Amino acid sequence: MSAAVRSADHDEVLAAARTLVAAFGAHDVARYFASFDENASFVFHNNDEVITSRSRYEQIWRGWERDGFKILGCRSLDQRVQVVGPDVAIFTHRVRTRVAGEAAELRERETIVFRRDSGGTWLGIHEHLSVDPRTADA
């Protein structure tokens, strides 16, 4: 694969990740979940369940919303894309999220595995969120 192709894939994945993060940060639920494949899986440090589908995650999300959950903003730092095949890429970053009812900004790091679907769209197929051990954004 040529460097130009890798660069185009890299840029497409980065754009897909930025769209996903922007939707999350705006609490645009429909656009956020549209960024994931229906069979995506999710592992979150603050949830003991390994979530095995987008629909299950949407169900959990609605429960959080009933409890007052709302994203007020999200910053993505140290973005990195690894294209690992013609249709698979890994996006990693550090995340700073403001949530309604939380006094402090959440400090996490995240990995999202993307796969290009048959229509050429990069969709998340796995997300893993953990606590960021860094205490500063230096």
UniProtKB/TrEMBL annotation:
Ranges for domain SnoaL-like: 13-131
InterPro entries noted in UniProt: NTF2-like_dom_sf, SnoaL-like
SUPFAM superfamilies: NTF2-like
Protein name: SnoaL-like domain-containing protein
Source species of the chain: Actinoplanes siamensis
